[in-house]
Structure formats: structure tokens, C-alpha cells
Description:
Cathepsin B, Chain A; three-stranded antiparallel β-sheet; two-stranded parallel sheet; about 35% helix; globular; Papain-like_cys_pep_sf
Amino acid sequence: QAxxxxxxxxxxxxxRVLQGRMKGIQGHCNSCYMDAALFSLxxxxxxxxxxxxxxxxxxxxxxxSILRDEIVTPLRKTGFVHAGSMMHLxxxxxxxxxxxxxxxxxxxxxxxxxxIMQQILGIEPLLRLQSGGQEQDCYCYQIFMDKQEDLVVPxxxxxxxxxxxxxxxxxxxxxxxxxxxxxxxGKEYKMFSKIIPSLELDITDLLLDSPRECCVCGDVATxxxx
Length: 226
């Protein structure tokens, strides 16, 4: 029997289902990196729903069914995922990833996403980046940047542009899904106390060989100044 599927939450439904006490994904044993990543990927968007249903060539069915039936479905249906369901997934990741610390240690979200998307489900990379003439494929982009004194409360658009500029990066093509990890911080140091979500992201200036308007004459630009 095919499992029930629930669409991502939108507008008033998102507020009704996700707002209040005992909502979201319950944290336990340093699971925050995974909780935040899965909530971002599945609660209100369907852009990576193929992870839940598509029979990929390398797909590990058990991990896929746990992700779909024990995490995403209850999150969209009731707005709450119990820590036990997350631990079930973490135990499977520990087994498949041959890393014993997935059940108790804090990990980098990129490590988690690469394991589940590449090694377990066999999904093609979502991003193609170019730096110094060399192309690289990846599943998400982590913002790296030096402290900017003029950015006190930045938005995501500013952070992505600053990060790409400082790292001399370009997008080779428009990504089907652009997963962005905000600057890391720990208990002792936070680069920004707040980051404003950009509801839309303009990647025109981040694209390689994208035709753009000259800011002086209005014709198609032939030179780019960083």
C-alpha cells in the first residue's frame, strides 16, 4: 500500500500547523544540525521531494522510507516530529555511513546532506560552481566570509554576494535547488546576531557568462569589475 503523502505547508496552513508549543522537529543529543536542515528542506517546499519517492539507482530504501514516513509526513501533517523518529534515521545513517558519531555528536550540515544525498540516495549534485577556471559539484553552499563592519544585520542576498565575491566563485548554471548554509557560529562567537531571510534571491551577478547590462551606457556589458 502506497504511503499517504502530504503537500508542503503554505501560507495560512503553515501558520496553523507549525505555530505553537511542541511544533517542529524535536531536538535530542546534538541533533540540531539535522533538525534544521530537514525542516528547511521539507516543511514548506517540495523542491527536493524526489528524495522521498523516486527510485534512484543507488537508493537505500530503508533510509528513504524513514525520511518520508516518519519525518516528512508527520511534519507536514501535524507539524511535529518526535526525537525518536530522528534517532531512527540517525542510527541508519551511522550504519550506512560507517561513522559511529551520527547518533550523538554535532555534525556539519553539509556532511549530513552529502551522506544522505550522494552516498545513500545517489542523487546528482545540485550545484555546479567555478573558481579559478576549475569546476566543482556539490549539494549545498556554505557561506564563508570575513567579518564585515558595514554588515550589522545582513540579509541572505548580501551574505551570498559577499561570499561569492571574496571566494571568486561563479555559478556555472542556474541551480535547480540552491541550499545555502549560513555562517557558522559557536557558543563563544557569533559573526551576526541576526540574519534577515531574503524571500527572493537574485543570482544574476553570480552566474558565469550571464549577459548583463552595463551600468554606464545600458548596453550589454563586456567587462566586469568586482
